[in-house]
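Write out this protein's structure.
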Amino acid sequence: MFDLKEISTATMVLFAVIDIIGSIPIIIQLRQRTGHIQSEKASMVSMLIMIAFLYLGDEILQLIGIDINSFAIAGSFILFFLSLELILGIKLYKDDEHQEANVSSTSIVPLAFPLIAGAGSMTTLVSLRAEYAIQNIIVAICLNIILVYLVLKNTKHIERVLGPGGIAVVRKVFGIILLAIAVKLFRTNLGLM
């Protein structure tokens, strides 16, 4: 059964982790390098990766002998550090430098993976699965992919409207929300609630 509260919470968590607004400078740089980004392709590949990991992530964990609560606690640490990056404006995780690539491959790597459907997103999905119904998480994924697609299509316009200050404020607000969710996820899976 669909739960609006679960859908909205999962949507906000994924939005904060994916941080598509904060990725606008990277998207602009990729667009300048290749001349064009295939927004539809990047969005669809990201969605497929996230849904596949949502279903297969648990089996992969069982294969290596890790329970979902332990993975959720580990995920809460990742969310905690991601929130610190957003709030403090620091870079704790450094991506590998990518070489020049054509439009098609740039839409997949680094845009769809790991920028949109990266380690943070995948950890978050498995962590959310420990707490929320799978259909609510799928709706949250789809809502986020729609937002990702709209941002990819309208990056230049969004950058003009928000400006550097607006983008910084959005990042900090979602950083605080993500920090609170990380603490809740940690406490719930540790059995402190």
